């Protein structure tokens, strides 16, 4: 079926059910960012493959609401599909609901599949439509009938990590969550998000590409804890280990019925991390407490074992990145390198490292104008051939059993212009400002975001994405609840959090620049004015200096850059060949 045929089939199903508008979020029953094939509903319906967006379909309009990271990509992918791009003004906002409220007449019906919408999304839709007398039905899965050959759920094996890898046992983690539930006066709690489940039970899998997670739900009540999972995914020894942690195992499909039959006075549900269908399964006699999953906050603060392992993963990743950029520099003049080829080669360099499992997301290898697309992924159609000129942006990461990495670097393949140098230096200045930040305990992500953007704003430049996101420990490369973006006004930066700092600058149709390191938040000093924190940079990869316009930097920025590159060389040299070390030594010379 073409995308237009699929759209027409959905509209026919809507007409049969008396539905005036149908909403398709980019999600699954676990409110995942990255999805199993079965739930890549937006890609199947419209052809758009970005990781954030919402479709809204009426009888005479079909739109994709997404943010500035995907505007160019969406315009290209939606061409000829019957869908149009609607540009979001605020990232993540339910602006499609307001549009439906303004467009549809009173008495209309809007529907969505409650398995694909979080409770907070369902609430936003209801709040926008109820006042204008539009009925909302969150129990309609139209795709199940029109999606021929829809993929089944994944069946890959899962496995448990040991305490030497995680630094904390499953029993201790569950006990900490139960203590938080007691503080909230919650008698029960359902965990839907896969990275929370993975952290809490020290379990990993490969049900989602690039994310070492396994599909499951976890229910805590006053008498027992239950994991809902395809039992065939676990070995007998792992099942026994979970039993020893007082975890009962039941079939994955039984989770909703278990919540529906729950005999508890109250249950804690995270509205952003629980699907509407699960929320709607809660018995009417059970009070619902809406709050963030306790495990989400606990998981974000890494323990000493996780931090030590992560440093080791950064070392392996730095070796791979060094070999990669040396290889690109030496091979580019032959005219045989493409965006797809270099992404594949980078994965091979990473795979040579001990305990490599997978990449942590699809590599963004953007040459020239493709670098201006923050979430670009090369295809056979777009695959650009590299030449010894212009800028190359590479955003990539690895999943190792001892940590997750995420790094962005920009290099000049030759003939850099003065404007490229100025833009690069200004972005670098932002990265350094964020990395050097000293801030009081309780600081929120929007404040770090502003500190990082300040030198970029001063030049009347800006970028349309957040400055940083949390990163998991051998888990999702995008981890909540903390972010460094303008909307994070409620989650404080805590000691032990790992976060990216990645300002950028994008000139559409020309090039893009983004320089990203991961940092660890650490306590600095306590005095009469309070507790102060700072960042330790974890990422080990040289920052190119041939693009730096030194006159645009203050002495503190130059000192930071020189010290950082010297640290990179010192840390990596002994793990490289003599030739590789000599190459890196040249790249890290002080400016």
From TrEMBL:
Q: Which SUPFAM superfamilies match?
A: Creatinase/aminopeptidase, Creatinase/prolidase N-terminal domain
The source organism is Sphingobacterium deserti
Q: Which Pfam families match?
A: Creatinase_N, Creatinase_N_2, Peptidase_M24, Peptidase_M24_C
Which protein are we looking at? Peptidase M24
Q: PANTHER family, per this entry?
A: XAA-PRO AMINOPEPTIDASE 1 (PTHR43763)
Keyword Membrane assigned: no
**What Gene3D superfamilies does UniProt report for this protein, alphabetically?**
Creatinase/methionine aminopeptidase superfamily, Creatinase/prolidase N-terminal domain
GO cellular component labels:
cytoplasm
User: Domain Peptidase M24 C-terminal, which positions?
Assistant: 531-591
Give a GO molecular function annotation for the protein.
Answer: metalloaminopeptidase activity
Question: Does Cell division show up as a keyword for this record?
Answer: no
């Amino acid at each position: 079926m073409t995308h237009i045929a699929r759209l027409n089939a959905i509209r026919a199903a809507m007409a049969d059910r008396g539905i005036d508008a149908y909403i398709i979020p980019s999600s699954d029953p676990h409110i995942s960012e990255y999805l199993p094939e079965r739930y890549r509903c937006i890609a199947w319906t419209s052809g758009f493959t970005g990781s954030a967006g919402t479709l809204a379909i009426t009888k005479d309009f079909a739109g994709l609401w997404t943010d500035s990271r995907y505007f160019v990509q969406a315009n290209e992918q939606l061409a000829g599909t019957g869908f149009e791009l609607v540009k979001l003004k605020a990232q993540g906002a339910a602006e499609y609901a307001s549009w439906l409220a303004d467009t549809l007449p009173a008495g209309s019906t809007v529907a969505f599949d409650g398995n694909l919408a979080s409770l907070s999304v369902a609430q936003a839709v209801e709040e926008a439509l109820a006042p204008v007398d539009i009925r909302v039905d969150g129990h309609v899965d139209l795709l199940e009938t029109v999606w021929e050959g829809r993929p089944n759920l994944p069946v890959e094996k899962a496995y448990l990590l040991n305490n030497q890898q995680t630094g904390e046992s499953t029993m201790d983690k569950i006990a900490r969550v139960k203590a938080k539930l007691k503080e909230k006066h919650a008698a029960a709690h359902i965990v839907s998000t896969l990275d929370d489940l993975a952290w809490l039970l020290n379990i990993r899998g490969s049900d989602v590409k690039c994310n070492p997670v396994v599909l499951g739900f976890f229910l805590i009540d006053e008498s027992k804890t239950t994991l809902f999972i395809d039992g065939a995914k676990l070995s007998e020894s792992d099942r026994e280990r979970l039993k020893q942690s007082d975890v009962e195992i039941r079939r994955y499909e039984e989770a909703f019925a278990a919540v529906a039959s729950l005999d508890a006075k109250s249950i804690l549900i995270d509205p952003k991390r629980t699907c509407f269908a699960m929320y709607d399964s809660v018995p009417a006699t059970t009070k619902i407490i809406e709050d963030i999953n306790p495990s989400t906050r606990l998981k974000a603060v890494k323990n000493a074992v996780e931090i030590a392992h992560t440093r080791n993963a950064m070392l392996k990743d730095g070796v791979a990145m060094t070999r990669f950029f040396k290889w690109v520099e030496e091979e580019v003049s032959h005219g045989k390198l493409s965006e797809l080829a270099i992404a594949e080669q980078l994965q091979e360099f990473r795979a040579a490292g001990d305990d490599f499992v997978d990449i942590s997301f699809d590599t963004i290898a953007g040459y020239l104008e493709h670098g201006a697309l923050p979430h670009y992924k090369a295809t056979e159609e777009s695959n650009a051939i590299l030449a010894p000129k212009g800028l190359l942006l590479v955003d990539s990461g690895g999943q190792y059993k001892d940590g997750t990495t995420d790094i962005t670097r920009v290099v000049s393949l030759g003939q850099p212009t003065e404007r490229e140098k100025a833009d690069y230096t200004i972005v670098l200045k932002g990265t350094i400002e964020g990395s050097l930040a000293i801030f009081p305990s309780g600081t929120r992500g929007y404040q770090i975001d502003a500190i990082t953007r300040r030198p970029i704003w001063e030049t009347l430049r800006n970028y349309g994405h957040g400055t940083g996101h949390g990163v998991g420990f051998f888990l999702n490369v995008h981890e909540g609840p903390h972010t460094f973006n303008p909307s994070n006004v409620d989650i404080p930066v805590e000691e032990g959090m790992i976060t990216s700092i990645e300002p950028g600058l994008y000139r559409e149709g020309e090039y893009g620049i983004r320089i990203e390191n991961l940092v660890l938040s650490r306590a600095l000093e306590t005095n009469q004015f309070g507790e102060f924190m700072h960042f330790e940079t974890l990422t080990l990869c040289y920052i190119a200096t041939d693009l730096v316009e030194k006159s645009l930097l203050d002495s503190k920025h130059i000192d930071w850059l020189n010290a950082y590159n010297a640290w990179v060389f010192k840390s990596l040299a002994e793990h490289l060949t003599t030739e590789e070390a000599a190459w890196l030594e040249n790249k890290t010379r002080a400016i």
